[in-house]
Amino acid sequence: MTMRFEGHRVLLTGAGRGIGEATARRFAAEGAAVLVTDREPERADRVAAAIRQEGGTAEAYGCDVTDDVAVREAVTRAAETYGGLDTLVNNAYSCHPDPAPFEDLDSALWYQDIDVTLHGAAHCARAALPHLAAAGRTGRGAAIVNVGSVNAERHFGDHAYSAAKAALASLTRTLAVSCAPRGVRVNLVEPGTVRTPAWTDRAEALDRVAAHYPLGRVGEPTDIAAAIAFLASPDAAWITGVTLPVDGGLLVSNLGMNEAMRAGTGLSRG
Ligand SMILES: NC(=O)c1ccc[n+]([C@@H]2O[C@H](COP(=O)([O-])OP(=O)(O)OC[C@H]3O[C@@H](n4cnc5c(N)ncnc54)[C@H](O)[C@@H]3O)[C@@H](O)[C@H]2O)c1
Question: What InterPro entries would the database entry show (predicted)?
Answer without folding.
Answer: NAD(P)-bd_dom_sf (IPR036291), SDR_fam (IPR002347)
